[in-house]
Specification:
Elements (H helix, E strand, L loop, with lengths): L5 E8 L15 E2 L2 E2 L1 H10 L5 E5 L3 H8 L7 E5 L7 H10 L5 E8 L7 H10 L6 E6 L2 E2 L3 E4 L3 H4 L9 H5 L4 E5 L11 H9 L11
Parallel strand pairs: 1-4, 1-6, 4-5, 7-10
Antiparallel strand pairs: 2-3, 6-9, 7-8, 7-9
């Protein structure tokens, strides 16, 4: 990739894990390492660059975990307004995307099954005129999603705990592409975490990169 064909990856890691009930879920052990590294390492193995991690809650602990990954492509940005909801982290992450990038893949940090190929397939599918590229699995839209630069201004107007799902539902230039059912899996509650950890991760090829 070069010039405007380049896409960044924005990893959202600023939330307070309120539904997890006890500690930051992104720091919970998963497969012998903190959960956040599943998403970050997948992003670093992908074609996306730079990889921007938006932190907020428990940022000092997350920064310590991510310190070993800070080599060129990884950038950490802090969202001081993370308590206001997800929209502020989206805005902060997109604001950090270099002008040379034609878009950004938005990757929630609590997705243990995401792989580099999931990110790469979105980047490869982006066509001129697209406002976004969204994977579809099991008959519904999944994550991560690619937001084209043309849609950045509308994303910057989001507020509160609203993500981009509602905005994308109303846009005509959203390209859908086949996704893996494993990428429908995220970790919101401690019960979900225990179930996933007990079976060693996720199915549908989740252990391959």
């Amino acid at each position: 990739m070069s010039g405007r064909e380049r896409c960044a990856v924005v990893v959202l890691a600023a939330g307070r894990s309120r539904r997890f009930r006890g500690g930051n879920k992104l720091l919970a052990g998963f497969g012998g390492r903190p959960l956040i590294l599943s998403a970050v390492d997948a992003a670093l193995r992908s074609r996306g660059a730079p990889v921007i991690v938006v932190t907020g809650h428990a940022c000092a602990s997350l920064h310590r975990v991510l310190r070993s990954r800070q080599r060129g492509r990884l950038r950490l940005v802090h969202n001081r307004r993370h308590r206001s909801g997800m929209a502020s982290s989206l805005r902060r992450g997109l604001a950090a995307v270099p002008e040379s990038c034609s878009g950004a893949v938005i990757l929630p940090g609590d997705m243990p099954a995401v792989r580099a190929r999931d990110i790469d397939s979105l980047i490869a599918a982006l066509q001129p005129g697209d406002e976004a590229v969204v994977p579809v699995a099991g008959g519904r839209r999944a994550n991560p999603v690619l937001i084209a630069r043309a849609l950045f201004p509308a994303m910057q107007r989001l507020a509160g705990d609203r993500g981009g799902r509602g905005l994308l539902a109303d846009r005509p230039a959203v390209r859908e592409t086949p996704g893996r059912s494993a990428t429908l899996v995220d970790v919101d509650t401690r019960a979900q975490y225990r179930r996933l950890a007990a079976r060693g991760g996720c199915h549908d090829g989740a252990h391959s990169s």
